[in-house]
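User: two proteins, same treatment. go.

Assistant:
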Amino acid sequence: MKKMIKSIEGLVPLTPKQLEVLRKIYEYQQMMGYTPTLKWLGENMSMSQVTIWEHINRAAKKNWVVKEKYRRGGVVIPPAVLAELRRLYPYRDVNTRW
């Protein structure tokens, strides 16, 4: 059964695809220490970079992520969302497949 974030108080729920993009960003950040590129996300999720960017933009409008200019990857996960992601998706070993 898939783990899902139903909602965090004060935030509009994400669609399943938006949540999946957020989860991939979170897991990559945990593994590598920085945000993945749109190209990497697109290749690993079988989506175009434009589609990934649209999901990130919509998640940002719902306050699930913060987009920052001049930052590698440009996406920051706020502390409340990060805490929920850590609870649902504990850090996995680097050799664990996505």
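Protein 2:
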Amino acid sequence: MPSFAALDTDPTMNLPLTPPVAPDVLTPASQASLPLAWQTLEAVPDPEIPVVSIRELGILRDVRVVANDSGEAAFEIVITPTYSGCPAMQQIAEDIA
């Protein structure tokens, strides 16, 4: 089963640092897990407005299957702040992990 991993971003451009994806991690099983990942992340609340999810606020941008450091399938979670310098981003990344 793929593991969840919060995404690191380039602090200067807020772009995801995407590791190369090995073709063998893009299996039907790992691709089939994507809807479950989205559903799981739907339940992650915004730390400042807990009645709203990070997906509803537009913080959750994408979920991708990538190879982790061990070459196994993992989820790359792409999140972006609602505004520059949002203090809740660290808490959101910890909640996802």
